[in-house]
Design a protein that fits this description.
The chain is of the alpha/beta class. The chain contains 8 helices and 12 strands. The chain has one domain: P-loop containing nucleotide triphosphate hydrolases (Rossmann fold, 3-Layer(aba) Sandwich), CATH 3.40.50. Helix content is 27%, strand content 17%. Strands 5-6-2-7-1-8-9-12 form an 8-stranded mixed beta sheet, sandwiched between helices. A two-stranded antiparallel ribbon has the order 3-4.
């Protein structure tokens, strides 16, 4: 059986507002953008992992949280919503492609059984660029929800693209996101970027579970002193300003970077995120 690429409608205005997500002056009525889960799928809880900018380790945090939950025997999935810059397949060292069936697209399973769907699991060559407009990218993310057969998933993690653009809007309007985790880094400029992500979540009425400051410090293996390589942390100030109760500081660990590069994330030590993992697993689902 050959993998079949998902067909996406081309961007064009046919004046049919029911299936359109664009907010234009000609729209006369409110439209329900909810995307309906594939009839053969079951997904209990959906957690978005977001960042205001790239390069902060969002995909790594997504992967580590998925690995931690899977180690506790939860049925876990990752929906890679970063269509133009997918990295999840490499992090998990996936070689096979997603296949189609009579019921929909079958996601690829990692070595420990995490179900994964990513754009790189559909295209022939991993290095081929996806040069699409924002609306097409958003539609592809919706199809990852509606056309993929997710098998009794307890926890689905959405690896979102950086920023607050079309894909974020599509996901928050269309998918039943129970909450988000914002990933950031210690640089002072990041406080402004985090503010944008926080306000986007507030506008879309999406609960913020926690903020994770990745690469917060480096712990010297000899003297155990914590060295703020990328500058002093501003996480406490940001969390207080926006009334976010849960913050987590993850150290810079070269072993985690190597695990991602080698596709061995499922063997990594990720105990530093255990409290956040427990928090996500125990939180109530949104109705």
């Amino acid at each position: 059986m050959q993998a079949e690429p998902v067909k996406v409608e081309q961007e064009a205005c046919d004046h049919d507002c029911e299936d359109c997500q664009n907010e234009c002056e000609d729209r006369e009525e409110q439209v329900d953008f909810t995307a309906h889960l594939n009839e053969m799928s079951q997904v209990k809880k959906v957690i978005g992992i977001v960042s205001g900018k790239g390069g902060v380790g969002k995909s790594m945090i997504t992967s580590l949280l998925a690995v931690l939950s899977r180690r506790k025997d939860y049925k876990v999935a990752i929906l890679d919503a970063d269509i133009t810059g997918p990295s999840i397949p490499k992090i998990f060292r996936l070689k096979s492609k997603a296949m189609s069936s009579d019921f929909g697209i079958v996601p690829v399973q990692s070595h420990t059984g995490i179900e994964i769907m990513s754009m790189n699991l559909l295209i022939e060559n991993d290095s081929d660029p996806v040069v699409w407009r924002g609306s097409l990218i958003g539609n592809m993310v919706r199809q990852f929800w509606t056309d993929v057969v997710w098998n009794e998933i307890d926890l689905m993690f959405l690896d979102m693209p950086p920023g607050t653009g079309d894909v974020a809007l599509t996901v928050f309007q269309s998918l039943p996101v129970d909450g988000i985790v914002i990933v950031t880094s210690p640089q002072e400029l990041v406080s402004l970027i985090v503010a944008k992500a926080v306000r986007m979540a507030e506008m879309m009425n999406i609960p913020i579970i926690a903020i994770v400051e990745n690469m917060s410090y480096f712990k010297c293996p000899e003297c155990q002193i914590e060295i703020p390589i990328f500058g002093d942390s501003h996480l406490d100030e940001i969390a207080k300003k926006y009334a976010i109760p849960n913050i987590f500081k993850v150290p810079l660990d070269p072993r985690l970077s190597q695990a991602c590069d080698r596709g061995m994330i499922e063997l990594a030590d990720c105990e530093g995120l255990e409290p956040l993992s427990n928090l996500i697993e125990n939180m109530e689902e949104r109705i």
